Structure formats: structure tokens, C-alpha cells
Amino acid sequence: MKFELSYTRNRLPFVTHCMKKYLFTLVIMLAAFTVSAKHIIGGEMIYEYLGKGTAPNTNKYRITLKLFRDRNSPPDAAAMPLNVYIGIFNNGNLQQYPSSGTYYDVVKANEQEVSVNPLPDCITNPPSLRYHTGLYTLTVDLPENAQGYTATYQT
Fold it and tell me: What residues contact residue 73 under an 8 Å CB cut-off, 6+ apart?
């Protein structure tokens, strides 16, 4: 028993020393890589009920996606997409509507610059703000559903 305890006790500093060396090496290696994000900076999706749909027991909706992009981004940053794919999912059974793997291809309807209000005088080094919005609109008839739907988008 004494031999095992003394072996464990003596081995522990060696193990922690090795772990510290490996951790330090890992941190140094990760610090050498540059990181950059190239994506849209934000967005919002809203829907509007337009009335009864063309088929019985359906309702017509307008789904509007607005994406925001910083125009001061580096030249190789993500551009405003020309089109997006909107997926609609039934909240009652979690199935995609109208069928699995079906996305609506929605073309950008409009892109415009967003006016930024003048910044307060208390900001001593004001940033240069230039934002654009891309507008994507889809009108769709959906079957009446008490549980509702979830709409998603991807590029």
C-alpha cells in the first residue's frame, strides 16, 4: 500500500506538469490563427394574414424576411444573397409543408440603404455606419392549423 500511495503522490506533479505544457502549447497554436466572420449581421421575419386562401380550409399569408448587412464589411465578406430558401413547418406534427425537403425559393425584391440617425454629441469617436437591407417576400396559402406553423430561412 505504501508503494502505491507514494507512486501516485510522486506521479501527480509529473502529470499536471505535462498537462500544463500541452495546454500552453494548444493555447499558443490557437492564438496563431486569425478568425473572421463573414455573414449577414441580422434579420427579421414577419408574417401577415391576408384572408382566406384560394382552396377550401386554407388561409393566405405574406411572409417577409428582412436581412441586414454592414456595408463597411471587408470586400470578401458575405454579400446580400440574391435569393433565400424559406421552409415552413407544421407545429402540430413537425412535418415540413407541403412535403419534406420542400423549400420556397424567394428572390430578393429590394435592397436599400438604411438611414442612420445622427449619433449623439457625447460620442467622441463616432463609427461610420452604413447598413443595407434586403427584402424577400413570399405569399403562400396554408391549410388551417390550430397549432400554427414555423417559418425558417437559409441561403
Answer: 38
